[in-house]
Amino acid sequence: MTSNSTDDISDGYHTFGELYEHRWALLAALMHCAPERAWMSRLHHDGTAYEGFFIAGMDLPAGTITYHVRDVWWAAYQLTGANVCERAPIWDEHDPAHVIARLRLWAIS
């Protein structure tokens, strides 16, 4: 994992870097379990990108969830069976609260 200024900040139990690695591993596991819902792209829908990251998402019944994932995970995410898109779908302006709600709904459905 490439380090940045926040990766080593800790709550006394985990660092931000560790928590992001957990997030990316869990998303890869979800995508592997439901590859028909999963996609990934190096570019946002408008052709922009964040250097060192790609975007990965899942189209769930309550809406799309997305995460920016460090490039070092690209090959692992390809193994999930996710659709590799030239550009990500148009962002529906979901925020972190929407992602959590959509994941919770999917988990209990």
Can you give me a brief rundown of this structure?
This protein has helices at residues 16-33, 74-78, 96-108, and strands at residues 38-41, 53-60, 63-70, 83-85.
Describe the structure.
The protein has three helices and four strands; from the N terminus they run H-E-E-E-H-E-H. The protein starts with 15 loop residues before the first helix and ends with a helix. With 109 residues, it is α+β, with helices and mostly antiparallel strands. The chain has helices at 16-33, 74-78, 96-108; strands spanning 38-41, 53-60, 63-70, 83-85. It has a four-stranded mixed sheet. The chain is 33% helix and 21% strand. It has one domain (16-108).
- Tell me the Rg in angstroms: 14 Å
Gap from first CA to last CA? 34 Å
Percent of residues in beta strands:
15-25%
Count of β-strands: 4
Mean pLDDT over the full residue set: 93
Helix content: 25-40%
Q: Count up the helices.
A: 3
Q: How many domains in all? A: 1
Category by helix and strand content = alpha+beta
The strand order across the widest sheet is 3-2-1-4
What general form does the structure show?
A: globular
Q: Give the uncertain stretches in residue-range form.
A: none
Largest beta-sheet characterization: 4 strands, mixed
Order of helices and strands: HEEEHEH
Brief descriptors of the model:
four-stranded mixed β-sheet, single chain, 109 residues, globular, 4 strands, alpha+beta, 3 helices
Annotate the secondary structure layout.
Layout: H1 16-33, E1 38-41, E2 53-60, E3 63-70, H2 74-78, E4 83-85, H3 96-108
Parallel strand pairs: 1-4
Antiparallel strand pairs: 1-2, 2-3
